[in-house]
Design brief:
Shape: globular
Number of helices: 12
Strand order of the largest sheet: 17-18-1-19
Strand content: 15-25%
Number of strands: 19
Helix content: 25-40%
Largest sheet: 4 strands, mixed
Length: 416
Amino acid sequence: MDYRITPPDEIIETKVSLPLSKSISARTLIINALTPGGTLPGPMADCDDTAALTAALSDPAATHINVGAAGTAMRFLTAYMAVQQGRTVTLDGSERMRRRPIGALVDALRRLGAEIAYEGEEGFPPLRITGRALSGGELEVDASVSSQFISALLMIAPCLKGGLKLTLKGSLVSRPYIVMTLGLMEKAGVESDFYMNTITVPERCYTPTLPAIEPDWSAASAWYEIAAISSGWVTFDRLPELSLQGDRETASLYADLGVATDFEGEEGTELSATPDQLPRLIHDFTDTPDIAQGAVVACAMLGIPFRFTGLRTLAVKETDRRKALVAELAKTGVLVGMPDDDTLTWEGERAPIGQLPVFDTYDDHRMVMALAPVALFMPGITVRNAEVVSKSYPDYWEHLRAAGFTLEEVEPQTAE
């Protein structure tokens, strides 16, 4: 479905009940499934990745699993299924998933003794996996491709004979997600050692002691963007300042864009506008790539020049997010530069436009949530394929309506 979006007439003042963390939920589901006598600690995030994981983990007789566009599920299940002795399963996904590389993870698992075959193109899903007992030992992996590959290996590490000593080669991306994985493993009874570029995990049984799932900081970042662009007030009924999630850095990032965070407000965590905007923003998103798109759009709408680095991994997400941002912001007249494969820059360059944008969203939930707030500056924009927010934030549109936005479903349009 496509939505034409009109912003509220008044300054935004809304309270939001955030979804639960997708990242923590996905890791909790895998660790719990590897735990003898494991019991989930409460509700999981309601989103596509956790739905795909829950379906796969709840049917031990399934021989063919299709995760759709759920990249986290594909990566975590690849490692999980590799240690399910005596079970053979085919892991598949959407057409886009079949173009997302998984060779680095498969190669690492094969070096541990895993039996994995490609059913189609080498290096990409679908995969045919026959579970078996794997030996641990020492393993080197490229840390610059995806932190989810590393997290997938770490979560099965206690189940390997002798545990695992994992050496990370190259520039480590999304380090907080690896720290999150190790933190959850520790809460489930498996301590590890992360020193320099080496992680050591002993052979050990997980214990059923995982904590309840936190609200999602990545989802909160969508509202920080709205608060920054609108100079409005947003209250979250619950959002932990001390969090396992690396995207908690959203608060400090948006402080530079004029959004103050009060974690001890009367009604919850409160966001409010301040005059303290930097005239130009320079930021490295290596640790927090999921909040980059919203920051790019916020700066463009606020007229704040920027140089953002640490964006290399955006090319292998649901779409190439850097190219998508450049293409879609050009429809607003904002001419973002892409000087190399790690960087986006903007120094205020603009071009005239002839019509309200019709945004393509590339089946990418974060593109939708980054672009929808453009309506605050350009009422009547259209966002295509709005339903893909189900990937991480199914209630996003209802929450936007509650904040005063008008959403008109329109006939599918071709973006210019």
